[in-house]
């Protein structure tokens, strides 16, 4: 295990938002954090670096490794006129 790093260090290295990182941990594409105290979590620096190497190896930005959400104009909801559906 490498050095234990704080969230701010992880964010600087990966440019991910906190919610994206936690979603990635849940979905399995981002390294999991571990608890070191009642209100403290850390990430293994080696695991974060391995994630970044995977991103570099695939020649994709870190955000490109996770499933994308649909983008585009919202469709009209046929059930409730005037309310848009996604």
3D architecture notes:
The chain has 86 residues and is of the alpha+beta class. 36% of the residues lie in helices and 17% in strands. The protein has three helices and five strands; from the N terminus they run E-H-H-E-E-H-E-E. The chain has helices at 7-14, 18-27, 45-57; strands at residues 4-5, 34-37, 40-44, 75-76, 84-85. The chain is elongated and about 55 Å long. The mean pLDDT is 81.
Biggest sheet layout: 3 strands, antiparallel
CA distance, first residue to last residue: 43 Å
**Continuous helix count:** 3
Number of strands: 5
Poorly predicted spans: none
Give a nutshell description of this structure.
With 86 residues, this protein is of the alpha+beta class. Helix content is 36%, strand content 17%. The chain has a three-stranded antiparallel β-sheet.
Write the layout of secondary structure elements.
Layout (H helix, E strand, L loop, with lengths): L3 E2 L1 H8 L3 H10 L6 E4 L2 E5 H13 L17 E2 L7 E2 L1
Antiparallel strand pairs: 1-3, 2-3, 4-5
């Amino acid at each position: 295990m490498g050095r234990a790093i704080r969230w701010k260090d992880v964010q600087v290295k990966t440019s991910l938002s906190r919610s994206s990182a936690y979603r990635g941990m849940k979905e399995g594409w981002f390294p999991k954090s571990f608890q070191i105290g009642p209100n403290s979590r850390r990430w293994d620096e080696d695991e974060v670096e391995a994630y970044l190497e995977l991103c570099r190896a695939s020649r994709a930005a870190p955000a490109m490794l996770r499933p994308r959400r649909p983008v585009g104009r919202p469709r009209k909801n046929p059930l409730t006129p005037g309310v848009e559906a996604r």
